[in-house]
Structure formats: structure tokens, C-alpha cells
Amino acid sequence: MARMKFLCDTERCIECNGCVTACKNEHEVPWGIQRRRVVTINDGVVGQEKSMSVACMHCSDAPCMAVCPVDVFYRTEDGVVLHDKDACIGCGYCFYACPFGAPQFPQTGTFGQRGKMDKCTFCAGGPEADGSDAEFEKYGKNRLAEGKLPMCAEMCSTKALLGGDGTALADIFRERVVRRGGSGAEMIGWNTAYGAGEQKREQNRGGDK
Amino acid sequence: MNTMKTVLLIGAAMALAACSEVPQVTNYKAGSYSGKPDTRPWESATYGGDKALWESDMRARARKQTEIGRMPPG
């Protein structure tokens, strides 16, 4: 098995925020914490609007792990980046290091002090007994231990957001690209994943301006 | 005069001391995880340590995310 990954197909994302809602509901994420969010660029520009669901990308070489002064991060065998909240000091270094803005900090104190970091766990819980109350309280549900994929991906109505074994996701995405008429270098390029796809081709054909 | 020489010598020594070359690059050491150990997903009650079963279940679940191939080509 390869590594667990998320992949968001911007040609399919309709900015419904179903993934955000699914995540919040599944893990009972408190107010002010956004483990996942949908980012839209060129909002309102016909034919150029792109939405993408973003959360922790469970990096292979995670910057949060590199900068953490108390080393609370660990990577599981299946490539999920998790952390131990008991040891977290809430310094916020990981927030500055993360290119995706994934680490979140609850505003627990009277003066808005930072609490312990919270982020997407790929629905893999944390370093507490699987399925225990302590695990749910701190990290949310552990769906991976139940043989399920992350809730956000499984709930995605257009299947724009895919989650799971990187090899399986690559196969699914390849099939889609081939159907869209991609070939050669187009199969693996940035444009295929994040732009110049079907909407662009529609424009070139003289479709919706 | 001797006092002046002494002051100048001490002054020169202090001024030159600031010119020493101190390494500016820090050598970072990779940290090691300091938290509690975690169990692996296939060690849960559902799978009881059967990694192969867990992996095949995850692959099957991942494949369910595509609609391509579900219907025969019409």
C-alpha cells in the first residue's frame, strides 16, 4: 500500500461545502475551528471559477513536523500526519510553517489565547485507544480503524474530493483525465489537476463566454 | 603616557575581539516524536491485526469513489 492522500478535482468541485459540514459533524469540531475549507478563486468570473477543498495534505516531508519545538507530530505507516495534543504547547509555529493553513487553534482563553493545535487527522484519530472517548474528545472519530475512508471524501456529492491510498486515487484520476480527452504530458501536469481543463476547452470551443 | 598606551591596547583588543568569525549557520537536529505511541489502524478491534484485510478493504473503499466502470458502456 502506498500513502494516504487527498486529491481535489477542481473540474468537479461545486463549492457546496459538503466536505466542511461532514467533517464538522463527524468529529464535532468546535466553533472557530476549520479542519477543512473550500477555497474559490476567480469567484464569479464565468468559466474561470475554480473551487478546491483544502485541509491538511499529510505531507510526505511535513513542515509542521520540522518546526515543532516539542516534537508532537508523527507520521503513521500509511502516511498520515498526526499529533499528540497532550504534549502540544500551542506555540503556533506549525501554523506559520504550513503552506495550506491547516493547523487551527481554539480561542479558549478570555483574551483569545491559543489552545492546543487541532487539524485534520485523515479520520485516523490520534494517540489514544482506538474508538475511545478520549480519542473522540481530542481528535474526533477514527474511521480508518473501522475500515472507512475520511468522511469529507466519502460524502463528496460530485466525488471531486477523493481520499485514500495514493495509488488508487491516481488510477481514478487517470481514468477521468482520459475521459476528458487528456493524453501524454497532460495526464500528469498541473493544468490537468488544477486548471485549463473542461471549462477552458468549453471556452475554446466558443461556448459560454 | 603609559596609561594612554594601556588604554589604547585594551581598546584595540576589545575592538578586534568583535571581529572574530562566529559560524552563522545552525545545525538542526531532526527531532524524534515525544508523544504517546499510537496503534496502527489494522490493530483495532475491527481488524485484529490483519493488515492485508485492512489494506484490501481500504483499496475497495477507495475504488468506490469513482463512478467510472459501474455501468456497462451504453
UniProtKB/TrEMBL annotation, chain A:
Keywords for the protein's UniProt record, in alphabetical order: 4Fe-4S, Iron, Iron-sulfur, Metal-binding
4Fe-4S ferredoxin-type domain mapped to chain residues: 4-32, 79-108
GO MF terms held by the record: 4 iron, 4 sulfur cluster binding; metal ion binding
InterPro entries, alphabetized: 4Fe4S_Fe-S-bd, 4Fe4S_Fe_S_CS, ET_IronSulfur_Cluster-Binding
Protein name: 4Fe-4S dicluster domain-containing protein
Organism field: Denitromonas halophila
Species classification: Bacteria, Pseudomonadati, Pseudomonadota, Betaproteobacteria, Rhodocyclales
